[in-house]
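Milestone M4 deliverable, item 7.
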Amino acid sequence: MANKDIPRNPDGSLPARLLLVEWPAGESEPTDYWITNLPAETPLRELVRLAKIRWRIEHDYRELNTGLGLKHFEGRSFFGWHRHVTLAALAQAFCTELRLDPKVPAPA
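Output delivered:
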């Protein structure tokens, strides 16, 4: 049976969740939805920031896999994998710093 292990409140009810909806001006309906289990007191600005950061994470993951070789590891040990991931993450951080530096010319 699906969802039988969802944690419940002492009275058997499901825990409260917040629904964050993006409805841009001029649109006939909402464009995005997020469900969160953050406390109800969380400021709206923080909820929006956390919801939108997903795209940054997806971009970084795609950049690590395609451009920086994260998925190209073929070793057999944890230590080798750990070195590979560390170097790929370092390369990605370096590329991000270059991208954010206003003095570095844009790539052609």
